[in-house]
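User: Some background: our group keeps a shared notebook of sequences we're curious about, and every so often someone picks one and asks for a predicted structure to add to the entry. Today it's my turn. The entry only has the sequence so far, pasted here. Could you supply the structure so I can complete it?
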Amino acid sequence: MFKKEKRVVGLILEHIDKTGECIEIATDAVKAYASGRLEEAAAAADRVNTVETDADTLLRDIRELLYSGAYLPLIRRDIYRLMSAIDNAANKAEDCYDFVNYQKPRIADEYKTEIIAIVELTVGCFTEFRKALKAFFKPKGKLEKLREHTRRVSELESQIDDHERALTTQIFDSSLSLGEKMHLRRLLSTIVRISDVIEDAADELELVSLKSIV
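Assistant: Of course. Here's the predicted structure to add to the notebook entry:
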């Protein structure tokens, strides 16, 4: 069992790094698109899809090890639920990139700075979550550090929500057509959904940490 658990931890750390890579590629591409660097944004398509697929493969490997007896039944399901939540962050990053790459919403100059700010906060949100997860797998668990980073995830997610509300108001108070307003609102929603699922993953991590000290 110990060897299986050690292997699971190794795969989880690979998965979190792969998820981070997916989010970074996707969000860099969204920033490039918002800044008018359209060819740079389009060139990221294969990289986003490949990295997200790699994350899915790692998740399947983790699931197989868990189902084969790694960890006690008490927390086995919790760990898999946590990993599914993390994988969902990679999925949402890919969805966000696909929205920009295929639907090509028109982003007026007055909204670009705010959208880029939200994207950067999203990356920061995931960075804090990754630190929390790695703290959990330190010898004997670094639970105080874990709590510190998950609190920071919540703080950043709240900041993103504030930006979202302000930008939504700005968009719908503008003279854009209703179709353009709705398209921009959908873009904003796809970006914000990434931080929503990161916060969900942080909540799952908190629950797992209450049941086990690694």
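Suggested note for the entry: The helical segments are 2-34, 38-42, 45-67, 73-103, 109-136, 143-172, 178-211. DSSP finds seven helices and no strands in the chain.
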